C-alpha cells in the first residue's frame, strides 16, 4: 500500500499534497496540522466561539485536496480537528457539498480532550508526572491550566476506516498515528500480535509526518535541492513484511536521499531505541537506509515493542506574556530619541505597577 504526506504543520503548502494525490498513486494522504502549543490556542478559540477550535486550514486544504482525493479514491486522515473535531467535521461536510461530493463520508474521532476531567482524574489518585523533569504532579500549575489533551493512537482511525470514511478527522492524534492507522487496517495488523510490524509502520509515519522536511525542506542536503519552491512531499510504499520504500512524485522539487531520511529519523525523537508512542515503542537501532535510485530510499530492519500502558498528556497553562514592539525613530538625534523612548517605556511600566521578569531594548541600525 502507498501512503503519502499531505501536510507537516499548520500553514503548510497545499499544492504538493494535491500533486501527491493526483500523481503519486497513493491510497491515503495524511495531514498533520498540530504542534505542542496548537491545542491550547485552539481551546481558547473554542472558548470564545463553540463553533471554532479546529485548525482553520482544514477548510482551504479540503477545498483544494478533497475533489482530487474523491476522483482518485484517496482517503484523507488529519488531526486538524484540534480542540473541536466535531466542528471540523461540519466544516468538512460543507466543503464536500460545495465541491459536488455530498456523499462524502466523514469519520470523527474524539476523546482526547481531558480539560474538563483533570480534577476528577487527580481526585482518583492519578498523578501527572513530567516526562523529562521528573516533577511528580501538576500542583504548581493546576490553577493556570488552559488545555489538557492525551496523545491518542490508531484505534479511532481504524474504526473510522472500517466504517468506510473518506475523510477522518481527529483531535490530538499522535503524528505517526495518522499513518500507522491506515497501514494497520490495510494489512490487518493488531496490537497484541504484530508489535514489530506496527513499529515499522510507526517508523515510516515518523519519516513522513513532517511532509517536506524529509524531502529537503529542512536538511543539510539543501545544496542538492532542485526547484525547492515546488517541493515534493514524501510517500511510502509499505510491504506486508514491514519494509518500505520512500519516494516522491517524479519530477517534483526538493531532494530525497539517504541523508534526508536519516536526519528525519532522529528528528524530535527523545530516544531512538525506545521511542514511546501510543501505538507502540519504536526501536530504530536496527534500521537500515539504502538508496535505490534518485529520490528513492528503502527502509528495512524496523522493529517495535507493544504499546505502553499509559498515554502521554499535553498540558497547556498560563505562564505570563511575551510582547515585542518596534518603533521607527528618524534623524536628527535618533540615538538620543531612542534613549528617551526607553526611559518612557520603562517609566510607564513602573507607573502601571507591572513587574516584568525581563526587558530588553535594542537600537537597530543606529551605527549603520
Automatic annotation (TrEMBL):
Q: Which InterPro entries match?
A: AtuA_N
Residues covered by the Acyclic terpene utilisation N-terminal domain: 1-367
UniProt cross-references to Pfam families, sorted A to Z: AtuA
The superkingdom of the source organism is Bacteria
What the entry lists under PANTHER family is as follows:
PTHR47708, SI:CH73-132F6.5
Q: What is this protein called?
A: Acyclic terpene utilisation N-terminal domain-containing protein
Organism ancestry? Bacteria, Bacillati, Actinomycetota, Actinomycetes, Mycobacteriales
Amino acid at each position: 500500500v502507498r501512503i503519502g504526506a499531505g501536510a507537516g504543520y499548520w500553514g503548510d503548502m497545499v499544492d504538493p499534497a494535491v500533486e501527491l494525490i493526483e500523481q503519486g498513486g497513493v491510497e491515503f494522504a495524511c495531514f498533520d496540522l498540530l504542534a505542542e502549543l496548537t491545542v491550547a490556542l485552539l481551546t481558547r478559540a473554542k472558548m470564545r466561539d463553540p463553533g471554532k477550535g479546529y485548525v482553520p486550514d482544514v477548510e482551504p486544504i479540503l477545498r483544494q485536496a478533497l475533489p482530487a482525493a474523491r476522483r482518485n479514491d484517496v482517503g484523507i486522515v488529519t488531526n486538524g480537528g484540534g480542540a473541536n473535531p466535531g466542528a471540523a467535521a461540519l466544516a468538512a461536510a460543507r466543503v464536500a457539498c460545495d465541491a459536488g461530493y455530498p456523499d462524502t463520508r466523514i469519520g470523527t474521532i474524539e476523546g482526547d480532550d481531558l480539560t474538563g476531567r483533570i480534577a476528577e482524574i487527580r481526585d482518583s489518585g492519578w498523578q501527572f508526572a513530567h516526562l523529562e523533569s521528573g516533577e511528580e504532579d501538576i500542583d504548581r500549575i493546576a490553577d493556570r491550566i488552559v488545555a489538557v489533551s492525551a496523545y491518542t493512537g490508531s484505534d479511532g482511525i481504524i474504526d473510522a476506516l472500517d466504517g468506510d470514511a473518506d475523510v477522518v478527522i481527529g483531535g490530538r492524534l499522535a503524528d505517526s498515528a495518522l499513518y500507522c492507522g491506515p497501514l494497520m487496517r490495510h494489512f490487518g495488523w493488531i496490537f497484541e500480535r504484530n508489535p514489530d510490524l506496527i513499529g515499522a509502520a510507526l517508523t515510516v509515519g515518523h519519516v513522513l509526518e513532517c511532509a517536506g522536511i524529509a524531502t529537503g525542506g529542512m536538511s543539510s542536503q539543501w545544496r542538492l535541492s532542485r526547484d525547492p519552491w515546488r517541493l515534493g512531499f514524501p510517500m511510502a510504499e509499505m510491504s506486508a513484511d514491514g519494509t518500505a520504500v520512500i519516494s516522491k512524485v517524479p519530477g517534483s522539487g526538493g531532494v530525497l536521499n539517504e541523508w534526508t531520511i536519516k536526519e528525519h529519523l532522529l528528528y524530535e525523537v527523545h530516544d531512538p531505541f525506545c521511542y514511546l508512542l501510543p501505538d507502540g515503542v519504536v526501536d530504530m537501532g536496527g534500521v537500515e537506509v539504502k538508496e535505490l535510485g534518485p529520490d528513492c530510499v528503502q527502509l528495512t530492519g524496523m522493529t517495535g515493542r507493544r504499546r505502553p500502558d499509559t498515554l502521554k498528556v499535553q498540558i497547556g497553562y498560563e505562564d505570563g506574556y511575551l510582547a515585542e514592539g518596534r518603533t521607527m525613530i528618524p534623524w536628527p538625534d535618533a540615538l538620543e530619541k531612542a534613549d528617551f523612548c526607553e526611559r518612557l517605556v520603562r517609566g510607564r511600566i513602573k507607573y502601571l505597577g507591572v513587574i516584568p521578569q525581563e526587558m530588553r531594548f535594542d537600537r537597530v541600525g543606529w551605527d549603520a
